[in-house]
């Protein structure tokens, strides 16, 4: 009873600073951190929700809201950055997304660049040795290939080092990430309010799912019927199905909002900003 009461009395839910999903669990007083059930990030419980006051070590005026995934230090939204790295684990590609503080971000960047340089050097040594071995049998001209490979490998490594720099430069801060996710959530809310039940139905049935799965339409119909029997109106039932199946309410806007939706929007804004800067640089 006590639990339920304090949950109902709280004016609003704690929103995950990383994905802005509401944290709906009961937070016992004095809890320092909780795990977001939606994105898995560690959330520092703000004082408003009973957590201790923790300040950002870089900005004493700002409250710390999240943890660095590497050093576990607590930082404000301007001091944590979302780093996406692609890893090969066995045969599958794993996309790793972490929020890191500036120091750990730079460390990760240096690490990635170091690995790339080391791999390039190894590749050069290895291919030189192979060519050298073959040149015993097929003639010394084979060694000339090294002269071609050397600038080629160096150019390739240089280009990839540039790409790493660019990717880290584009890493959005937690504040930016949060602003964009709130903006997109607002957009979703207004779409929910303005779209009619028929438009929503069309989005569900007309999506690419149906074309792939023959039984999807009757499946939707059946769930619709059940939800409406339990008291939801048609639109509410359709929205519920949409969020259960993680469908798009508009291009690039899933219900619930996905991390990728947010990242694409940040990328789009970043490109727009860059184009604007280029334009003004030209005209001035
Ligand atoms: Zn989250
Ligand atoms: Zn760190
Ligand atoms: Zn800070």
Order of strands across the widest beta sheet? 1-2
Mean pLDDT: 86
* Stretches with pLDDT under 50, minimum 5 residues: 1-10
What is the distance, rounded to the nearest whole angstrom, between the alpha carbons of the first and last residues? 66 Å
Shape: extended
Question: How many alpha or pi helices?
Answer: 9
Strand content: 5-15%
Number of strands: 10
Task: Briefly characterize the structure.
This protein is α+β, with helices and mostly antiparallel strands. Helix content is 56%, strand content 14%.
Describe this structure in words.
The chain is of the alpha+beta class and 284 residues long. It has nine helices and ten strands. The protein starts with a helix and ends with a helix. Bound molecules: zinc ion (3 copies).
